[in-house]
Design a protein that fits this description.
mainly alpha
């Protein structure tokens, strides 16, 4: 039996360049459109929506060796009073779950 790859932080390859613009490539939430990550200190204008990134994550998680996702850089509290960023994070997690279910 092969050991699955533990994926700590997940990036869709086309979005890697966007994250690199922030000079903090270990983040995933900062690539999203600022309307979905209000209060983020490093917004990426015209970034993808959480639905678009979730679709990419779903495709990645269709592969059995992909085993985990890390969601980091999530604004909360006073920086996201309506919980919009949290909903975006849930969307990304949901994409991963759909990918696993589609295996």
């Amino acid at each position: 039996m092969k050991t699955p790859i533990l994926l700590i932080v997940l990036f869709a390859l086309p979005l890697l360049a966007l994250s690199a613009q922030t000079q903090e490539p270990g983040k995933i939430m900062d690539v999203l459109d600022p309307s979905e990550v209000r209060g983020h200190s490093l917004p990426v204008p015209q970034g993808p929506t959480s639905q678009e990134l979730a679709a990419a994550i779903q495709k990645m998680f269709a592969y059995p060796k992909v085993a985990a996702i890390g969601i980091v850089s999530l604004p909360f509290g006073e920086r996201d009073k309506q919980g919009i960023s949290l909903k975006a994070a849930y969307c990304l997690i949901e994409g991963a779950i759909k990918g696993v279910k589609g295996r």
